[in-house]
Amino acid sequence: MQELEGRLVAMGSWKSGGDASSMWTETADCIREATREVLGISKGYSGGHRGDWWWNDVIQSKVEAKKAAYLKLLESTNEEGKGADKKLFLLAKARERKVRDLDQVGCIKDEEGRVLMKEAQIKQSWQSYFHRLLNEEGDRNIMLLELGHSESHQDFRYYRRIKVEEVVGAMRNMSQGKAIGLDEIPVEFWRYVGKACLEWLTELFNIIFKMKRMPDEWRWSTMMPLYKNKGDIQNCNNYTGIKLLSQTIKVWERVVEGKVRRAASISEN
């Protein structure tokens, strides 16, 4: 970490000033470049499965057959019976493994049930599904009443600056090893690189808090489809979506939440 910290300092990564978007973009580019030079690029974790999207009715039936054969093997009382049941168990296990396709779902069905083979068609199908899921379903006519945009409800005269201790406290209870967003910067980076980066991050949060605008890069996320483990694996409706956001914005959210909780008073009624 000392080598990485020194490389970042040499690159002038911790410059402050300007708006939040330009400040973040310049430093984030330095962080990505320095970490690649010092730490290299990981090839990813090869152990285990990348996901359980491959689970379907065919595989489920094979698993049930394997379980039934195994229970029968345990219940066998003679050696001859155990030998036959063991062969049956191994055969069921081999068939279960054979029907798994752990690489990828090669194609997706459209709304009419037709199988799409071309990459452009598959992408369009996912886009239409998630647009409908995120923007069209549910009650979109929520009345917010007078929250706010009136100047009479806002007080710009004073705000308490965010301190480094608040940022450190916000990160303390955050989980490690989570999927990163498009910026490729995990929360572990801010924890371990050093005091200079924490001071810079705190200054960035104060600029966001004062100017009321976050970096433009934080507005982007990656949508990942996750199979629900039931139904046709080629049907988009059997998937849910998860957004991979910048982990730094999650630190910011926890800092703001902490300030609100400390400042707010909740009456018994």
Describe the structure in your own words.
By secondary structure, this protein is mainly α. It is built from nine helices and four strands; from the N terminus they run H-H-H-H-E-E-H-H-H-H-E-E-H. It has helices at 2-10, 20-39, 57-75, 79-98, 119-136, 164-172, 187-192, 195-211, 247-263; strands at 108-109, 115-116, 222-227, 239-244. A hairpin with a 5-residue loop joins strand 1 and strand 2. Helix 6 (164-172) packs across helix 9.
Q: Over all CA atoms, what is the radius of gyration?
A: 26 Å
Q: If you average the pLDDT, what whole number results?
A: 79
Number of helices: 9
Oligomer: single chain
Helix content: 40-55%
Distance between the termini: 51 Å
> Into which percentage range does the β-strand content fall?
5-15%
Could you say which structural class the secondary elements and strand pairing correspond to?
mainly alpha
SSE string: HHHHEEHHHHEEH
Shape: elongated
Low-confidence residue ranges: 45-53, 100-104
Summarize the structure.
The chain is mainly α. It has nine helices and four strands.
Features:
single chain; 269 residues; mainly alpha; two-stranded antiparallel ribbon; 9 helices; 50% helix; 6% strand; elongated
List the helices and strands and how they pair.
Elements: H1 2-10, H2 20-39, H3 57-75, H4 79-98, E1 108-109, E2 115-116, H5 119-136, H6 164-172, H7 187-192, H8 195-211, E3 222-227, E4 239-244, H9 247-263
Antiparallel strand pairs: 1-2, 3-4
